[in-house]
Write a structure and sequence with these properties.
By secondary structure, the protein is an alpha/beta fold. It is about 45% helix and about 15% strand. Bound molecules: NADP nicotinamide-adenine-dinucleotide phosphate. NADP nicotinamide-adenine-dinucleotide phosphate binds next to helix 1 and helix 6.
């Protein structure tokens, strides 16, 4: 299937590693011009060389003032912007009782406001050309809460509300807005969480964890011309774990 992504201009947030990197690589494989972004310049350089990006821009999504400039710089470098994939580093684990106000505020900026701010800046560019694709990488936690991931459970559910709202408001501008909800997928983040892999695998009907490349193919399809009639969908990437209806 020709996804018609050749020369499409894409920015993937939090993409020097893990899921964001896999998405950037898959968009590139389909012919898109891709800018990656994250905090660590050395990691960006290595990934940029490895997957062959258009360029990279350093940006810390926890810094509210840096996000609009990121979108403006990316659109200038690419000569426009067709595709925005939002993503962020995962928030700290913890139960409700564990978390401080500061942790809530920090996670709200990094996980939620970075999405709001980046879409706010990208939308006029996409609306003018009457074509845009926005895909949020969120989590199954935003639909079915996961023990000890209070921040993720809460803020991701909010992102799905934002996604629903935007799909209705931006449809007439030729922009689709969808979310992809991964379950446990083999990345650095998973290693950091020090999870019991065997126990996790048992929870997944497919009997294995997800692979970043599989998620990337789903996101890439949602970014394509073919997916123009799909908007406002929270698509599980979960090996059959969640009930969809
Ligand atoms: N992997 C899973 O099993 C899974 C499941 C469900 C949901 N998720 C969610 O999906 C997202 C990505 O997860 P992952 O597994 O790909 O994580 P990962 O392997 O740790 O990669 C995270 C990426 O985000 C960047 N990043 C981290 N904090 C950032 C910040 N403040 N500003 C800009 N970039 C930042 C990192 O680069 P720098 O260090 O250079 O900034 C890195 O490129 C997370 O929000 C995670 O909670 C993951």
């Amino acid at each position: 299937m020709d996804l018609k992504l050749k020369n499409r201009r894409a920015l993937v947030l939090a993409s020097s590693d893990g899921l964001g990197k896999a998405v950037a690589a898959e968009l590139i494989a389909e012919g898109a011009n891709v800018i990656i972004s994250s905090r660590n310049i050395e990691k960006l350089e290595i990934t940029a060389t490895e997957i062959g990006v258009h360029s990279f821009i350093k940006c810390d999504l926890s810094d509210a003032s840096s996000i609009e400039p990121l979108i403006v710089e990316a659109a200038e470098a690419l000569g426009g912007l067709d595709i925005l994939v939002t993503n962020a580093g995962g928030p700290p684990a913890g139960t409700f009782a564990d978390l401080t106000d500061q942790q809530w505020y920090d996670a709200f900026q990094t996980l939620f406001m970075s999405v709001t701010q980046s879409i706010r800046a990208a939308r006029p560019i996409m609306a003018e050309q009457q074509w845009g694709r926005i895909v949020m990488i969120t989590s199954v936690a935003g639909k079915e809460s996961v023990h000890n991931l209070t921040l993720s459970n809460s803020l991701r559910a909010g992102l799905h509300g934002l996604m629903n709202t935007l799909s209705k408001e931006l449809g007439a501008e030729g922009i689709t807005v969808n979310a992809v909800l991964p379950t446990y997928t083999e990345t650095e983040r998973l290693k950091q969480l020090k999870v019991d892999r065997a126990a996790l695998t048992k929870q997944i009907p497919a009997g294995r964890l997800g692979q970043p490349e599989e998620l990337a193919k789903l996101v890439t399809y949602l970014c394509s011309d073919m997916a123009g009639f799909i908007s406002g969908q929270a698509v599980g990437f979960d090996g059959g774990s969640m009930q969809s209806v």
